[in-house]
């Protein structure tokens, strides 16, 4: 079993923006990058009437992000994702060496 660091925030805060909630519910958003750990693999969270399960947690450099990663975040391309992040966090710079936590998730299939 892999060991993960302590959480820095609650899982309920992982995906909160209405546009991103809608994208996750539509299956267009499958990842959320955060500065800290909000959930460990196997944990679940609900977005309105859909339950999601975190399937992976890993570190990633901002400089390693691609358009594919941006689409998994619910954005059409890396530049639009980058622009949104910088608008949301005034004063932040996009440092390619900065590390973020990638939370990968999917809608839980009821059995």
Automatic annotation (TrEMBL):
CDD domains: ASCH_yqfb_like. InterPro entries: PUA-like_sf (IPR015947). It comes from the Bacteria. This is ASCH domain-containing protein. It comes from Candidatus Methylobacter favarea.
